[in-house]
Design goal:
With about 270 residues, this protein is an alpha+beta fold. About 20% of the residues lie in helices and about 30% in strands. One of its GO terms (molecular function) is calcium ion binding.
């Protein structure tokens, strides 16, 4: 059943003295209008909205990035050569040694300290809190980014850490316990490319042993990767974590800096 409701809409120029309920002066007739509105006696149905926990968490993640949540990394907007020591073995590079002040995982004791060489012109880049693992240490279920450095002319590197339990149920497993180099990169490939990894994009896979630690090394040509068309990677496992070191470059960077990128990857050790 429909009901009628009479409404008086007043001109913004009408004063309160003109709006007496007992009378309606003719002088204000032009400033008031009467409308007859028909409406249903029953309210319209409210559409049901359904969402699951994953959608909710994804929304929170996007929201935090859109709102530009403050960064938690201690990245410095200056060239690393201004504050890192030169390499004793090669003065063309400086040495980065990760310490607890650098990452949440190192502060939590969830990652063993690592080091690598960098050209002095590179700069450290900031990592969003949601990607740094700060929110989930010391028991993260998914991989996180430890540190990132880049140079516009040469490329970029990043250290990605993954909880060991994501790859194997064996505690304190070595990288050999997890699987072959090909099996490992199949699991961690998306963290190299930023999206997906096709098996055909793996050009080389090899094994390196240094000071009792085993490393898997990779050369990848990734035309559709978000990180770059060329990627070099090196992975190892220690404690409760698998650490993946990635150097990436586009075609222009690769043509002039592939030797430098290979030297950077060679230098990484845990």
């Amino acid at each position: 059943m429909a009901s009628s409701i009479s409404l008086f809409l007043s001109s913004p120029f009408a004063t309160s003295s003109h709006l007496s309920s007992s009378q309606e002066p003719a002088t204000t007739a032009s400033s008031q209008r009467r409308f007859l509105i028909k409406c249903s006696s029953e309210p319209p149905p409210v559409p049901s909205i359904k969402f699951n926990k994953r959608d909710f968490l994804w929304g929170i993640t996007l929201g935090s990035l859109i709102l530009k949540e403050p960064f938690k990394s201690v990245a410095r907007e200056v060239e690393v050569g201004s504050y890192l020591p030169p390499s004793p073995s090669d003065p063309a590079f400086v040495v980065f040694k990760a310490t607890p002040k650098d990452t949440p995982a190192l502060r939590a004791g969830n990652v063993e300290p690592y080091k690598f060489l960098l050209p002095p012109t590179w700069k450290q880049t900031r990592i969003a809190n949601i990607l740094s693992g700060n929110y989930c240490q010391p028991k993260c279920a998914e991989p996180w980014i430890e540190v990132k450095f880049e140079d516009e002319k040469q490329g970029k590197i990043q250290v990605v850490a993954s909880p060991l339990i994501r790859l194997t149920n064996k505690p304190n497993a070595t990288i050999e316990d997890i699987g072959t180099p090909e099996e490992l990169i199949a699991s961690l490939g998306p963290f190299v490319t930023g999206n997906t990894l096709d098996p055909d994009e793996l050009l080389e896979a090899s094994v390196e042993k240094r000071d009792g630690q085993t490393y898997y090394r990779y050369v990848l040509e990734t035309p559709f990767a978000l990180t770059g068309t060329h990627n070099l990677a090196k992975a190892t496992a220690k404690g409760n974590t698998v650490v993946l070191f990635v150097a990436s470059a586009n075609e222009k960077q690769w043509s002039s800096a592939q030797k430098t990128l290979k030297a950077i990857v060679d230098s990484f050790e845990l």
